[in-house]
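## Example record

The block below lists the input lines for one assembly entry, exactly as stored, with component labels intact.
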Amino acid sequence: MPDFAGFFLTYQSLLAFIGLNGLLALSVYCTLCCGQLSLANAGFMAIGAYTGALLTQNAHAPFPVALLAGAVLPAVIAVPLGLPVLRLRGVFLAIATIGFGEVVRLAFVNWSYTNGALGLVAIPQKTRLWMIWVALAAVMFALARLRGSRAGYALEAIREDEAAARTMGIASTHYKLSMFVLGAAIAGFAGALEAHLTYMVAPNGYGFSRAVEMLVYAVVGGDAVFHGPVAGAAFLTVLPEALRGAGRALGLSPGPLRLFLNGAILLAVILFLPNGIVSLPRTLRERRMRKASRAALG
Amino acid sequence: MLLSVEGLERSFGGVRALDGAAVEVSAGEVHGLIGPNGAGKTTLLNVISGLFRPTRGRIVLGGERIDGLPPHRIAALGITRTYQNIRLFPGLSALENVMVGAHLVRRGDTLRRMLFLRSARDDEARAREAALQLLGRVGLGDRAHHRVSGLSYGDQRRVEIARALASSPRLVLLDEPTAGMNAAEVQAVAAVIREVAKQGQSVVLVEHNVQLVMQVCDRITVLNFGKVIAHGEPQHVASQAEVIAAYLGSDA
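Predicted structure tokens for the full assembly:
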């Protein structure tokens, strides 16, 4: 009988971060799935984290209220932000949303009420592992059911060809904005969960590199289906830990080599699995079939 | 009159792609739109479907002015289209493309799907059935589950026609629907167009295949340099000197 309890205890924080990163990757997927490259979610995450932390720390609000507010406030902000910026396409949208992220970060750096660059500390630790995984499961369920719905088809159509989708009667702005807002809510919720797990928030944890990190999870996992980003987040969260163990077993020094291997594996996935790691079974199957047909042809 | 277009102008920089174009289409009519390359036929379709705003002029659909409305509103009022340079959703199957086309006639089902309500399942099954039927009508019943990027040009054009018909529009704009098709396929498309018109839906057909135009169109408008140079019944139009000149050069 394997020691499940021991396993959970040892890897509790890793499992928590897999779940949190999965949520963040899905928040990016929300905009990616209708063809929008938005990097605003680190900013939304910051707003959610600060909102939740301030509510529990200063207002002594119940934890569920803090979590809910952490999701709602970013969503509310996403509406007036999304209306103008979602008119931009491709890289221009990315640049505009990076700008938003920086504005949020700098606002918190300069806001004395939230302790400036030092951020908030000693936030009550209220997040439990099961909460993270229930949230992840709920978001995955919703996205799974969205697929194949009328709105799901509309989103796919917008991703493939927005102008053609509009001439089919699809109000593309409405759908793009809805997904932008949903992504903001998920990122904010994850931010509030994380703040109450690590007991601290600081503005520099929500900068450009965090925004890119979420995007990388989604792209490496595969952004064509909703479970891709979660797989990517799990893979990239576990990889450094797995390499740490492997390095120790091989007697390698930690540090640079591990980062190098991490980067090399990432590169290999992008090069050989352009549709993400969830496309691995299909890629292998197709390769086997090609080989078989070549053998049959002699 | 279902659609009436009056004095439509559209310029791109210094080029007047449409220079006072006018077209009238009645319900159940197949209206041909012909003219040499660069005459403004596709621009006219782009303006009618809302992809371009007109610089001047008015477009009235069923008594309601639609010029300047966004494309999805125009589609909701009953105009859908196909594209000269095919614009299907390449990553989706033929069936899924047609399901997207049915967007306007499907009820929102996201919440009902989350709750696994029976009605959502029924709606989806009905939409799927209708899409399959449409694909059958254009002769693609057996390729419904193929990814459209793997289909031949002719098949892709037929998927586009099915997609445009999926919302039961009052007016379909077909932009060179038979380009790249063989004679049998062209006849199949002609049959579909006639069937659509018989159900009271109107068709505007931009087409270089003059034989097809003469065969299926009730009336024809000829454009040249963004202006109407002739309009009327096929026989009447075909005999006009200006049309012959525009197509064959003035010496002919």
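Residues 88-159 of chain B form one domain. The radius of gyration of chain B is 19 Å.
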